[in-house]
Amino acid sequence: MNLKLITLTRIFLVILLIGFFAIVSLLLDFAYSNNFRTWFIETIVNTEKLKLDIKGKTLLEIGWQPELTLNNISIKNKAWPRPENVAKIDQLSLQISIPKLFHGDIFINDLSISKPELFLFKNKKGDTNWNFSDRKADSNVLELPVIFENLHIISGIFHYYDGIRDMNFEGGVDSLKGSGGWQLPITIESMGSYQHKTLNLHASAGSYSELRSEKQPYPIKLNMAFGQTEIAIRGTVIHPLQVADPKLNLSLKGPDIAELFPLTGIPLPPSSAYKITGNLSRHDTTWRFDHFNGEIGHSDLQGTVLVNPKLEPLYFDMDLFAKTLDLADLGGFIGGEPNHPDQSVMEDDALIPDHHFDLKQIRAANGKARLRATNIINKEIPITNFDGQLSLNNGVLKFEPVTFGIDEGRVNLWMSAYGSRNPADVDIQIHVIDLSLSKLIRKVNDIQKTLGKINGKLKLKGTGNTLKDILSSSNGEAYLVQFDGKISALIVELIGLDIVHALGYYILGDTQIPILCAVVDVNIKDGIAQSKTLLLNTRDSVVHGNGHLSFKNETFELAMTPYPRDFSPLTLRSTLKFSGTILKPKFSINPLSTLMLLPPVDIGEVQNIDCQKMIRQAKD
Fold first, then answer.
1. In 134-285, beta strands by DSSP E
2. Which of 194, 220, 338, 404 has the maximal Cβ count within 10 Å?
3. Is residue 377 a contact partner of residue 370, using CB atoms and an 8 Å limit?
4. What angle do CA 377, 270, 376 make, to 5 degrees?
5. What is the DSSP letter of 210?
6. For residue 344, what pLDDT band results from cuts at 50, 70 and 90?
7. How far is CA 314 from CA 280, 367, 424, 460, 487, in A?
8. What H or E segment, with its residue span, contains residue 29?
């Protein structure tokens, strides 16, 4: 028995000695053989999908804090033929602490990465080339097996293509420095670019021990400058490594809220300078920005914004309210420059904006939004009780509807823009209900005395990526009717060029005469609006008109022929002509046929006008 025990002991010692020499041999090979190090690292890192390829030399400095340096690295995803690489790194240097391994964690004393380049890709199914595992990670649990004490990244570049949104994103890191420790706060400073704008970041947070604590909220502080946009986040996160419950304050400031799109993924229209501050929290996968107060141009803003970035595409839900809304701040919705309508991107002397809508942004998200306002700032028309609702679904943008009041009247606007097509098809409908003409034209005192309300509809269908293109290609119809109103007698006589009666009203005082009816009935084809009926019928005169307006070059021609009902010894009986552009109209009459003294008996004997029939024709 003793002999057998001695024999087994000797065999065990031999095996142990062989194992020891094998381990020592492996360590020596790893320490001094470049080929063995390369093979060993690639073998333990590579998986069924991940392929690490070390093309350059590997260096190892031996000690209690060994440092490993790898050169000319590429990382591939075998399941993705394109792009060829997920990442390329010119040099990676890693230093670890062996004594701290006995604490149960991997402490990275220093990680330096030089000239990394990332090629990130998401296909239309939502699969990503940087996912090397078939197992879907639990989004509510964050594993942190490694503790970084120092991090350095120099001259980095990344490319990202989102197949769902069909959009490319690019950026770079000139320099990034990070530091932290078990008891030291974590800090990150970065300077770089994103989407051709500067992107600088400074962030600080609690230590790694605080990060793993289940008792204390984890403090976070971040300042980011993206172009001229400034973002600040302050607050704490409870259980950051489990079901994170952030309690944060978010501040946004910049010249144009549309510049947030590359950061948030939410398509927003161009805006005036803005400043917004509110609370940021998260429930499950939905982020909530609420209890915020802000200013956009001359408008204030309050409300709630919900964003779920986990859905494909991203989903948003906005409920916004403004106590005071400057209508000029909404200019970005129609392609103009907010608060600067005269500086929008369009030709000289043009009224219709020619700024392109970004269809890819419209296709980038789904969601809905509502904006309500009570006090409206508008120099031209007194607008009240604005309520605009829009939805975005698979590239289809709808206003459903946008409504606002003018005095006691109302305007309802519906629009559908099919952004899934390029150029987009657009349908527009506008209903006007009981609008007061005197409120629409406020600069001419005599016209302000005009009484009566206007009702009508506009229907348009056009194609284009600018408002100008949409109107220039549009087809549709429009009509306006007014009846049971009153108009300044002075205006009527001046339209009819009845000099004697006009002088009488001017000297003795103006009066109001009934409007029997007024009808505007227009047909629109290929961007040209052609009148079918233009009529103003009063007790004293009948005015017939004919004309057209081109949305393509904003030119128009309008001819108005007055027929006075009463006799006047000095009446100018000629067609009045208006022409030119919308912003630069011209007026003319024929000087050879205007003066008619003691005209023939047909003066004042115009045919009876069937107003109700014309109104019905315009409505049909």
1. 146-148, 150-162, 167-179, 186-194, 197-205, 218-226, 229-238, 245-254, 274-283
2. 338
3. no
4. 10
5. H
6. very low
7. 18, 8, 21, 31, 54
8. helix 2-32
Cβ(111)–Cβ(188) under 8 Å? no
Distance from the Cα of residue 54 to its chain's centroid? 43
- For 113-142, what is the mean pLDDT? 79
- Helix (H) / strand (E) containing 502: helix 499-508
Listed residue (503, 485, 478, 486) closest to 570, CA to CA: 503
Nearest to 388 by CA among 311, 432, 327: 327
**Judging by DSSP bridges, how do beta strands 150-162 and 106-122 pair with one another?**
parallel
List Cα–Cα distances, 174 to 26, 149, 264, in angstroms.
39, 20, 23
Supply the DSSP string of 292-325, one letter for each residue: EEEEETTEEEEEEEEEETTSSSEEEEEEEEEEEE
Q: Are 591 and 526 in contact (CB under 8 A)?
A: no
CB 147 within 8 A of CB 101: no
Q: How far apart are CA 145 and CA 130, in angstroms?
A: 20
Rg (the chain; Cα; Å): 37
Q: Which candidate, 272, 267, 277, places its Cα nearest to that of 303?
A: 277
For the segment 191-207, what is each residue's pLDDT rounded down to a tens digit? 999 999 999 999 999 98
**Looking up tokens 């590997």, which residue turns up?**
58
Question: Is residue 1 helix, strand or coil?
Answer: coil
408-416 — which CB contacts under 8 Å span 24+ positions? 408/434, 408/436, 408/453, 409/433, 409/434, 409/435, 409/436, 409/439, 409/453, 409/454, 410/434, 410/435, 411/435
In one-letter notation, the amino acid at residue 4 is K
Write the DSSP symbol of residue 21.
Answer: H
How much is the mean pLDDT over the chain? 80
Identify whether the C-beta of residue 409 lies closer than 8 Å to the C-beta of residue 359: no
Please give the Cα distance from 281 to 179 (Å, whole number): 27
Higher pLDDT, 609 or 547: 547
Instruction: Give the SS3 label for residue 42.
Output: helix
Residue of higher predicted confidence among 357 and 28? 357
> Which token pair is 159?
């490319």
Q: Which of 314, 307, 298 is nearest to 375 (CA)?
A: 298
CA separation for the pair 462, 484 (Å, rounded): 35
Give the pLDDT band (50/70/90) at residue 362.
confident
Q: Which two tokens stand for residue 158?
A: 């990344």
Say which residue the tokens 């809220």 belong to.
Answer: 257
Determine the residue type at 270.
P
